[in-house]
Every structure is written in C-alpha cells, then in structure tokens.
Amino acid sequence: MDNIEVFDSPGKGRGLRATKELLSGDVLFSEPPFAAVVFDSLADKICHSCFRRQDKLQRCGQCKFAQYCDKTCQSAGWKEHKLECGAIKAFGAIGDNFGKAPNENIRLAARIMWRLDKEGGVMSDMQMTSLDDLENHISDMPEDDLKELKVDIHNFLDYWPRNSKQHRVDDISHIFGVINCNGFTVSDQRGLNAVGVGLFPNLCLVNHDCWPNCTVILNHGNQSAVNTVYHSQMRIELRALGKIEPGEEVTVSYVDFLNVTEDRQRQLKMHYFFDCTCEHCKGHIKDDLKMGGKVVDGVKVPEEQVKEVTEYSLQMLQKMDKARLEGNYHEVIKICRECMEKQEPVLADTHIYQLRMWSTASEVLAYLQFIDEAADYARKMVDGYNKLYHPCNAHLGMATMRAGVTHWQAGKIEVGHGMICKAYAILQRTHGPTHPITKDLEAMRMQTEMELRMFRENEYIYKSMREAALKNQPMSMMNEPMAESVKNLFRRQKK
User: Where does the SET domain start and stop, copy by copy (predicted)?
Assistant: First the structure.
C-alpha cells in the first residue's frame, strides 16, 4: 500500500491521500473482506462461498441454511462457516426462532467477532486501521434505529455459542454500529445486483465526495478451480478515475450521483451522519439538468407544467416499482408507456424521473423480447447519463454496455458496436482488464467488430446470415430484471 497513506482530513476525521502520482485505472489498493455474508432474502439463491447466483445449489447438511455451488465451494467456505454452522442450527431450535437463521447483520457481526477472537485483535499487514478505531455512530442513531440495534444485540446473544469467548455488550454494539454505517454492498459476478454485505476496514477510511476521483469495484477472483489451493480471493479494488497528484485526498461516492443535491445530502446525513460540503453539493451542480424542463424551439416549458409532470412521474415510479417487485412486467410496461407519454413533451432528456422510466422500460422490454423498442429507450437513457455522470463512472459504463448489447440484439450493429467500445473503455478503468465483466465485454467487442466489417462489406449478406442464424438458434430470454441493484457504495440493513 505504498500508493497511499492515512492522514487527518480537516472536518472529516481520518482519510487517505496519494503518496505519488496516480493515473486513470491505477489500483490504489485491493483488500479481501474481513468478513462477508449473503443477504437473508437471497440465502437460497446465492452461493455462500463465491457469491455467485446459481439455479441449483447444494445445502449444508448440518445447518440446512448455507448453500454452495458444489463441494469445491463448500470446502473453500468451510473456514468461515465451520463456527457458524452449529450456531445457526442451535439458534433455529430456540422458541420463536424455530427453523430460522439470524439476520445478515447478526451473522456478519458473529463472523467478525470470531475472526477478532482468533487473531487476538491484531491487525494484519494489509490493514491500515483497527476495527476499534472505526466510527460506530451509535450516539447519532434515531430512536427507531436504536430499538432495532437492541433487538439485534438480543438475538446475537441467543446466537453466540456459550463455548465461544464472551464479549461485553458495548463491544458487540460497536461492531453492529460499524456494520450499520460501513457495511459494503457485495455484488454478484455481473456487478449489477446486490447479493450480500461485507466489511472492508481499509475502505472505511476513504472519505466521500459526490464527484470522486476513485471508484470501488468488487472482484470475485477465480474460484472455479477444483482444488481450492488455486482459488484467488474475493476482494475490493480502489481504482483511480483520473490523474491524482501526490498529497491529494482520495475519495469515493457513497451514494449514486443520479440524485439531486438535496436527496444525496439527506441520504448521507441519514445513513452516514455527516453533512456533505463537496463542490457539487455547495454549487448544486447539474441539479438544473436533473429536474429541468424541455426546451422546444428555444422556448422552455413553463415551470408549473414541469412541476406537475414531475409530481405525476414520482407517483408513477412508485406504482412501477411495486409492479416490478411483484414480477408483473406487462403492468410495468403499461405504467412506463403512460408516464413517458406525459414526460417526453415536458421534461428534459436529463430529468432523472424520465431516465428511470427509460432505464426500466429498456430492461423489461428486452426481457419480454421487444428488442427494437428496448434499444430505443436504452439509447435515450445513455444519452442522458452521458450529460450527468462522470465520464468514467462505473454505472455509466454498465448502462452503456447493456444498451450496446440491446442494440446488437436488435440488429443495429453500428450503434451497438460503438456503445460496446465506449463501455469497454470505461470498464477498463473502473473494473480493470482482468475483471470477468471486462473480459466478457472484450469478447463482445471483438464479435461486434467482426460483424460490423461483414455489414460494411455487404449489408444484404450480413442481414441474411444473421436472420438464418437466429432461425436456427432463437434469441434466448434476457435475465429477469432484478429489483435489488447496486447503486450505493455502503449498504444499511433494510428495516
């Protein structure tokens, strides 16, 4: 970790700063999780070792809770699972807990405590801070959150084995507080969907900026080898988004920039207990684009009309989210179309409510195989994102990749290839060249480049060959849209 050092950041406590010049895509540090667990809601869908989503998982024969891809993953995960296995089994035999496992916060806290007990609280060479030094913000918690904390502590004491080292309630409370404001969202292999929560102590030292100079990406490593000796560990990587000078503080964004200043500040205050004073918050930069009205022939749509459609859009977004959670995708599209019909003549193409409708419509229409229409909305979404996001933002890269693939599926090879190339350039920096997503995207780029050459040489032959290929191998259904997407860096337990 000779790229960075810990320093006292004015008004922010401790932070990290660069010790030498860094360029876009450089890795400042990588860090394996101190501990990580799968979400309760996905416990039977995600491997508890490699955090991959699988159709068929093998359940632990003892606790009946942990699930694994195969015996290889079970062996790899045994080091973390062996202590909790009996504890989960015993917890599920207690009164009201019968047949249940403790929630993800309790399971994560227990894994942290077991590791601390084993290592005697001594920091590893890679760790720049001890867990005792991390803020727990318990004194800042609202009353409802404190009640939830007390319930978690009570259940933790039921869960914690009597033959393990016993801890003071204050120490347990501290760990829960640290998890509450520093639990990192663990994504699946595709990097789009949140599947778990983990604790990465070094990452907790990186302060927030709404327009940061770094990004954090989860790399699952290689866990496909039959022999677990050859596995590479899951880790987070802190990567530079542009040139960083020696002595400059390194920052990441804890929340998605695709929110207006007021909403970002509210999220940061509620979840992380600080007031953001970054340049983009002080200047309300790009808020006018995010909530703006359309300009028609040089004339802006009246503010009252923009406000009316904005309020209507918010109501429709709530209805759309409900239908999406229920898996009623035809209803989702119906809501989107009704809403977009009112939005498009009034709202700017950077209005965040219109962007959300375009994003959802493109994803769900692609799943329902209305590919041409999905591609049109995906293009509008990316055009809007390009005006709002940092040019190396990981969300922008992933959205551009999705739009490029949708255009390719629609047979729009020129636009599709251009988007895939742009996404590849972004993800090379944010994810790195060895990340599975980047490798997949590189294969797509080579495929579309070859098809584009064929298209330019003879458009008729290219389309004929494509048509024949699709007849012999019909286009498969897209993955079902997921409601739990990765948007915020740190993740609090849902109440």
Answer: 2-255
Task: Please check whether residues 240 and 339 belong to one and the same domain.
Answer: no
Do residue 7 and residue 59 come from a single domain? no
Q: Which is it for strands 235-240 and 214-219: parallel, antiparallel or unpaired? A: antiparallel
Q: Are residues 177 and 205 in the same domain?
A: no
Q: Which of 67, 47, 438, 32 is nearest to 233 (CA)?
A: 32
Cα separation, 72 vs 49, whole angstroms = 9
Record the pTM.
0.87
Q: Cα–Cα distance between 152 and 154 in angstroms, integer?
A: 5
Query: Per residue of the chain (495 residues), what is the pLDDT tens digit?
Result: 678 999 987 777 789 999 999 999 999 999 999 999 999 999 999 999 988 888 889 999 999 999 999 888 898 889 889 999 999 999 988 777 777 899 999 999 999 999 999 887 655 656 788 888 888 999 999 999 999 999 999 999 999 999 999 999 999 999 999 999 889 988 877 666 889 999 999 999 999 999 999 999 988 766 554 444 444 678 899 999 999 999 999 999 999 999 999 999 999 999 899 999 999 999 999 999 999 999 988 899 999 999 999 999 999 999 999 999 899 999 999 999 999 999 999 999 999 999 999 999 999 999 999 999 999 999 999 999 999 999 999 999 999 999 999 999 999 999 999 999 999 999 999 999 988 889 999 999 999 999 999 999 998 888 888 777 766 654 444 566 654 455 555 555 444
Q: Does a structural domain hold residue 437?
A: no
Q: Which residue has the tokens 């389309």?
A: 463
Q: What residues have CB less than 8 Å from 262, skipping those under 6 apart? A: none
> What's the DSSP call for residue 230?
G
**What gap in Å lies between CA 53 and CA 191, rounded to an integer?**
11
**CA atoms within a 13 Å half-sphere pointing along the CA-CB vector of 121:** 7
Return d(Cα 212, Cα 491) in angstroms, integer. Answer: 18
Q: φ, ψ for residue 165 (rounded to 5)? A: -60, 130
Chain-centroid distance of CA 400 in Å reads 16
List the domain range (segments joined by +) for residue 356. 286-372
Provide the number of structural domains found in the chain: 3
Q: Let me know if 10 is exposed, middle or buried by CB neighbors in 10 A (0-12, 13-18, 19+).
A: exposed
Nearest to 186 by CA among 349, 348, 36: 36
Do residue 148 and residue 79 come from a single domain?
A: yes
Among 245, 264, 285, give the residue marking a domain's end: 285
**410 forms bridges with which residues in the sheet?**
none
